[in-house]
Amino acid sequence: MNVYEPVVAVMRKHKCTCSPEQFHAAVNVTFHEFEAEVYDQEHRDMWDSVPKQVELLVGDWLAKYPQMPESLNVLDIGCGTGLASDSLLKSRVGAKVRSIDLLDTSHSMLRRASERAESWPVPVRQFEGLLDSLPAGQHYDVIVTSSVLHHVPDLAGFFRTVRSMQQPGGVFLHVQDPNGDSMNDPELKRRMGEVAPKLPAWAQRLHPRRILGRLQREIAGRQGLDYNSKTNRALISQGLIKEPLTVTELFAITDIHVHDGSGISIRQLRGLLPDYEMLGQRSYGFFGQLPYSLPKRFEVREDELIAAGALNGVHIGAIWMVCR
User: What one-character-per-residue DSSP string does 158-200 give?
Assistant: First the structure.
């Protein structure tokens, strides 16, 4: 399957004439510009869970390679409002971080990350755009991403570029992607059925209530003030579409590896990262959602499963080191 097929299907329906790559990029940038307004409020659960996962993955790194460099320069790809960098700084290797480069396609996300970075004890640079926006020949000891990989259509090309920016010993850490290896896991489905049904954050966007609200606004001939509606108005004003995208269409484009049903698979990543050794992998969200909003008894069980190294939660993260 062509990785852009979900995008092409939407474009065909809306008679778009630009390339799939251009359309995908435009929708993503526009969407995240408006999502930045509410990102931290809507993803409070990530600020509770992601730092813990980063600390666990850093622990996996230290367990295998306790003698690490005294100085680490960091790149945060798709930095959003700065969660991954903030988590790394608060981890056991935070004191070794000497600089951070923030990269995002959204100006608004970068602005919010820069505001957060004012409290960080290291120099920070901001770059707006894709990986080719970074200085030529730049190398990083640590590259981090949070909730990014499932947005990237061409993962093979993405990882080739990441590899080109790291020397042997360089570390790549990613968290907060849908677990492609456990999407049909019967034990996960059983656990999810134990709690009041609430989809993980990346899937809530396709919840019937949201779709219904969107349809009601379309029938009424009006657009709301939510970031989905603002995204549609901006795309129409740019001449990319003539009528609003549905919620399903919008997230078929932005969350491309959720919509195609594949998620992010560690098995797949092993093939895409041939020069890297996997130092550790982690899973979480064992009841279908982050533990931030779980009843206490489920929080306890979540912690037990994390401590046991179970790998069939709805979210995954892993840490890799360049070995050749």
Answer: HHHHHHHT--TT-EEEEEEEEBTTSTT-HHHHHHHTTS-----
d(C-alpha 37, C-alpha 107), whole Å: 11
Q: How confident is the model at residue 209 (pLDDT cuts 50, 70, 90)?
A: very low
Helix (H) or strand (E) holding 279: strand 276-284
Q: How much is the pTM? A: 0.89
77-82 mean pLDDT: 98
| CB atoms near residue 66 (< 10 Å) | 7
Lookup result for tokens 């813990």: 52
d(CA 320, CA 61): 8
Q: Return the CA Rg of the chain.
A: 20
Element (H, E) at 254: helix 247-254
Express each pLDDT in 17-76 by its tens digit. 999 999 999 999 999 999 999 999 889 999 999 999 999 999 999 999 998 899 999 999
Q: Which of 228, 323, 215, 223 is nearest to 277 (CA)?
A: 323
The contacts of residue 92 (CB under 8 Å, 6+ apart) are: 55, 58, 59, 62
Q: Max alpha carbon distance in the chain (Å)?
A: 63
Q: Answer yes or no: are the C-beta atoms of 65 and 321 closer than 8 Å.
A: yes
Q: Find the mean pLDDT for residues 157-181.
A: 97
Model pLDDT, residue 154: 92
